Amino acid sequence: MNADTQQRILDAVDAGFDAQLATTADFVAIPSTRGAEGPCQDMIGDLLRQRGYEVDDWHLDLDDLKDLRGYGPIEHDFSKARSVVGTYRPQNNAGKSLILQGHCDVVPAGPLDMWETPPFSPVIKNGRMYGRGACDMKSGTIGALYALDAIKAAGFKPTARIHFQSVIEEESTGVGALSTLQRGYRADACFIPEPTGGNMVRSQVGVIWFRLRVRGIPVHVAQMGSGSNAIMAAYHLIHALQKLEAEWNERAKADRHFKTLTHPINFNPGIIRGGDWASSVPAWCDVDCRIAILPGWSVAECQKEILACVSAASRDHRFLSNNPPEVEWSGFLSEGYELKDSAAPEAAFGKAHAVVYGGAVKDLAFTALTDTRFYGLNYNIPSLCFGASGEAMHGFNEYVDLESLRKSTKATALFIAEWCGVEKM
Q1: 24 near 142, Cβ under 8 Å?
Q2: How far apart (Å, rounded) are the C-alpha atoms in residues 201 and 361?
Q3: Which bin fits 57, alpha (ψ -120 to 50), beta or left (φ > 0)?
Q4: Whole-angstrom Cα distance, residue 281 to residue 121?
Q5: Which of 12, 142, 244, 325 has the most CB within a 10 Å radius?
Q6: How many CA atoms, within 13 angstroms, populate the side-chain half-sphere of residue 358?
Q7: Is 265:293 a contact under the CB 8 Å cutoff?
Q8: Gap between the Cα atoms of 135 and 9, Å rounded
């Protein structure tokens, strides 16, 4: 790809950036929390049809997915769950095929009074767009779409098949991405524009979700010594799991990518429910937990360690020793992923990055996970993850930095052109 072609594509990104931000704001304004992603998928389907892509929009059937590698259990109403894929097919197939994927699901906003502006009323100020999902990762998804638009606006068309995929469940199981593979979508490479601060994810953790179900003995609080407080017993288990977290972080010091980080394994008791009355000793407590694992670690073996940790802690507890808690697997059962055998797509992206950023791509050991794992682990499809900068993902006042979004869109567009090849329209 010559310099003139590159510049025309870069100029087209700039020319379309205001429209890109307007579309991003419309996308962020849809409150697509788990189970409510349908309107976002409708919007993506419409955007793809307007651009002339072949659109495949289907409902997910868990029976098709439950035996596949990386499947995580679904506990909520899944009857409306959909994946949307728009396919571009070239007239002349001369380049290498590509999957571009984003997820439209977002995490809950939390107490609305703790946001400076409403989470689903996106606001642009000081070079940032604020809103739930603005950073993670609706701006990246729309950025990839406008990267394709820029190639067309510059007078070119790709010479390879491209699947533009919008999936759900990235934040809790990953079965949306898994569904596209079960459906048969494949390519020579995958590119996911998650917000990575302008770095390439070289290695990422896997994640296990589990629930502690503790049952106590309820009595009037005036006689609480004769009962057993399920909430306090749950805290005993949490403390034990913090020790397991510390052990796993010691083990992580031997990992070639994560040894540079001081605390790559994070355990989080993220949801706690329990009790029925302030003057009654609580008879129950459920704690939903998340813990990370490193690439190469077995999910099944780590599950065994979690069970052993909970069992050992229970034996040391007066009540739990005779009333052991239950452990349920409640979402992610995901392996970590290390980017390997990816020299060709990385070289193509490296050229694009050098033009936009003026240097080599920096690597990132990512202490969260992305959908890249399914493509690399299940089907040996090299899966790159690179995107814009922002802050407060999963927190209050989440935002994406707009100049970084402009740059990442440019890098994405040049990568598509380099990897897939382009010809004049």
Answers
A1: yes
A2: 10
A3: beta
A4: 42
A5: 142
A6: 0
A7: yes
A8: 24
Surface-to-core class of residue 4, CB atoms within 10 Å of its CB (0-12 exposed, 13-18 middle, 19+ buried): exposed
Q: Strand runs (DSSP E) across 43-152, as ranges?
A: 54-59, 82-88, 98-103, 123-125, 128-130
**Residue 391 to residue 204: CA distance in whole angstroms:** 19
Identity of the amino acid at 392: A
Q: What is the pLDDT of residues 305-355, one digit of tens each?
A: 999 999 999 999 999 999 999 999 999 999 999 999 999 999 999 999 999
Kindly state the tokens that stand for 11: 């100029």
Q: What is the pTM of this model?
A: 0.97
CA-CA distance, 158 to 228, in Å (whole number)? 66
Q: How far apart, in whole angstroms, are the C-alpha atoms of residue 196 and residue 74?
A: 27
**Which CA distances in Å does 132 have to 25, 115, 117, 214, 282?**
11, 10, 10, 33, 35
Q: Where are the domains of the chain?
A: 3-204+336-424, 206-333
Task: Say if residues 401 and 9 touch (Cβ distance below 8 Å).
Answer: no
**CB within 8 A of 226, min separation 6: which ones?**
217, 219
Give the strand pairing for 200-204 and 267-274.
Answer: unpaired
Q: How far apart are CA 105 and CA 81, in angstroms?
A: 11
- Asked whether the predicted pLDDT for residue 92 surpasses 90, the reply is no
Q: Looking at the domain 3-204+336-424, which fold is it?
A: Aminopeptidase (3.40.630)
In the CATH hierarchy, which top-level class contains the domain 206-333?
alpha beta
Burial of 71 (0-12, 13-18, 19+ CB in 10 A): middle
How far apart (Å, rounded) are the C-alpha atoms in residues 20 and 28?
12
Nearest Cα to Cα of residue 337 among 232, 241, 204, 233: 204
pLDDT averaged over every residue in the chain: 97
How far apart CA 32 and CA 82 sit, in angstroms, is 12
Here the contacts of 217-225 (C-beta below 8 Å, separation 24 or greater) are 217/281, 217/283, 217/319, 218/276, 218/280, 218/281, 218/282, 218/283, 219/280, 219/281, 220/279, 220/280, 220/281, 221/279, 221/280, 221/281, 224/281
Task: State mean pLDDT over 357-377.
Answer: 97
Q: Give residue for tokens 């970590």.
A: 336
Phi first, then psi, for residue 416 (nearest 5°) are -55, -45
- 201 strand-pairing partners: 364
Residues in the chain: 425
Give the C-alpha separation, 343 to 339, whole Å: 10
